[in-house]
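Appendix B. One record, verbatim.
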Amino acid sequence: MIDALATSEVRATRRRLLDLLARKDISIGAAFVARLDDPRWYVQRNMLVLIERSGHVPDGFSLTPWTSHPDDRVRLEAIRAQLTLPHERELAIDTALEDVDPRIVTLGLRVLQKTCPPELGPRVAELALQPHAGDDVRFLAATALGRVRQPEALDVLLRLSAGGRTLLGRPKLPPRSPVLVATIRALAEQWAADPRAAPVLAAAARSSDPELRRAARGTDP
């Protein structure tokens, strides 16, 4: 118990120091970058945190070498920092979506919640359809897919919302889940006028679940 408390205090102290250093009004970007050559993963991670929080990055400097680091904690902070660099933002998103760590994939998907470039549609669709990707990843992927105005995106959204047929032959929704809610909302926002989406939205509108009914109207949760 004592050891756990001590570790917690050390972490809290480290966070406070990082916050203080990141708020310094001096140009310390070069010092942060120099320390990135330290082989210890936690030193690299801390320097990346400082780079991201302070915004002190030398012109033209690339964080790409650290986005493929073997330690996921370093990769996470490297991509987080890389997303703040205009000249590397697109690369950071691409890299995040291909990572094996769900936290990093989620980081990339969050950037795509308002707009998603069509060229990323296939990868986002793949993530949305992965049954073992986790609800957070699949929820964000389905939402991002709703920002892609392409027939292939509609195909995937229809697959995500397919639950078979009722005895009367009407489309039936799969069991309610965050992914289904995001899918229905994406269909309502982008494809409400499409005849392929209309029966699915009608099924959601008849649902006993109020969140699904709101999603079918394209309204926020």
